[in-house]
Amino acid sequence: MKKLLLATLPLIALTAVGCSSSGPEGGSISASNGILVGFVVDAKSGEKLNFFGTTNNADDNNSTDQIYALVDGSFKTAQPCGTGDSNTTNTVSMNGCYLFRGLPTGVFFPVFVQRSGYEGFSGTVFIDPDAATDFYGAAFGNEPQFAGSPGLYANIRIFPTGISYDYTVLAELSGRGIPDVSVRCVFNGSNDFDVVGDPGVSNYIDPDNDFNPIVSGTTDASGVVVFAGSTLTKGASYDCAAHATDEVDGAVVSYTGFGGFTVGVDDNFVTISLSASGTGLFAIYSNIDDGNHRIGENGPVTIVLNRDASLVGGANCVAAEVSTPSFDIAADPNATTNPNVDNTASEQATVDVTGDTVTLTPTYLVAPSGGDLGYTWTFGGVFLTPASGEDAGAIYSINGGYAGISVANDPGANVVSGYGDCDGVETAASGALNNVNTGAPNQVFTATLN
């Protein structure tokens, strides 16, 4: 059985910023009309926690218990929610409710919670500038300053100090625990919130994870692997992939399964059911399977295969193109460089295939700045072949016929066609690299950078 080497899901590089010309989805940005509202709860008991006096409606700037955001380099503290229809007779509880007004929209900014007896919390929030809603006016006594303001409803979990949660993962096939299965659980920090007024879910801000975004292990003789609580971020969600391979009559057969958990919220025993995912070469998982993940300006994109592979045709076949709603790509100084058909490198990406992991990193003429939002990165011309097995030599492609890169001084350049060896590789490719995590016949080849 072969060990699965799932690479780290990169964290989004986030900075607290103010205004810009366009948000990640291309919308306009307002400087300071965003609203963030929600509840802070004890993650163990579910109790809503007061931060604003005994009735949670009187602000105390001198208290050491605070909810605050970092905006334009300055700290901004939350305020108590409006009383609305709450009064001493109906005893509607305001416990735990917090409110920020005048927040930037269309940019990411961090939110923090500190409270005696609890572990500190930090998370990252994005308020869609186009999500105008009158929800807040009705919810808080029809106060006129709320009317039409874009906003976000987002709860926060905080954990009492001294608590740890171990998680046990069982990899099973037909009811039997399977040994020597590689299990990788990757921190999921997409923060893809629904805006208030949309059909909703219970929105909790994902905690930031700056120290250990991935945990991994191999199942024991009973099919179990344990992840210690000290290696996990409390309140964070993890996506898990389990993988094993076996060789039958010269053919490499792969078994995969998927699951996940939220630390301190979900049951601490997780079962992942394996199923035969076929032969050939395919992707088990990549860090861009979910289009809501923003992987940062420098990526990288990581694609994990079901078996070891190597790059065919060389890096010169690989090309990529940056796109952003903030700029005309033909004139954008951050655009990728033009292809050179006579060398052995890619001008738009660095490419590495090590074992069963493919890593692609964007390269730029000028790196994007923190205020350049909405970048996506499309790549192609990646040709792979299995390192062993009866199908060694078969060629699988990721966006094999990619014809991108149309910047000002090379309009309409066809990246793959005309590249000598790449033409032959593309013709010989047996098909696209599929992805069993998404169920798609083609591996995703567009990454959302920021």
Describe the structure.
With 450 residues, the chain is mainly beta. It is 3% helix and 34% strand. The strands form seven sheets. Strands 1, 4, 5, 8 and 9 form a five-stranded mixed β-sheet that branches. The protein has a five-stranded antiparallel β-sheet with strand order 13-12-15-16-18, with no helix packed on it. Strands 3-2-6-7 form a four-stranded antiparallel β-sheet, with no helix packed on it. A hairpin with a 2-residue loop joins strand 23 and strand 24. The longest helix has 8 residues, at 421-428. It is globular and about 75 Å long. Residues 1-30, 134-142, 190-201, 326-334 and 404-420 have low confidence and may be disordered.
Shape: globular
What is the mean predicted local confidence, pLDDT? 74
Low-confidence stretches: 1-30, 134-142, 190-201, 326-334, 404-420
Percent of residues in beta strands: 25-35%
Number of alpha- plus pi-helical segments = 2
| Count of β-strands | 29
Please state the CA-atom Rg, rounded to the nearest Å.
25 Å
Give the structural class. mainly beta
In helices, the fraction of residues equals under 10%
Largest sheet: 5 strands, mixed
Distance between the termini: 38 Å
Entry keywords:
450 residues; mainly beta; five-stranded antiparallel sheet; 2 helices; globular; disordered N terminus
Fold blueprint:
Layout: E1 34-42, E2 66-71, E3 74-77, E4 79-80, E5 97-103, E6 108-114, E7 121-126, H1 135-139, E8 151-153, E9 156-158, E10 167-173, E11 176-177, E12 182-188, E13 214-218, E14 224-227, E15 237-248, E16 251-262, E17 269-273, E18 275-278, E19 283-286, E20 301-305, E21 309-311, E22 319-323, E23 349-354, E24 357-362, E25 376-380, E26 382-386, E27 396-398, H2 421-428, E28 431-432, E29 446-448
Parallel strand pairs: 1-8, 1-9, 10-17, 27-28
Antiparallel strand pairs: 1-5, 2-3, 2-6, 4-5, 6-7, 10-11, 10-14, 12-13, 12-15, 15-16, 16-18, 19-20, 20-24, 21-26, 22-25, 23-24, 25-29, 26-27
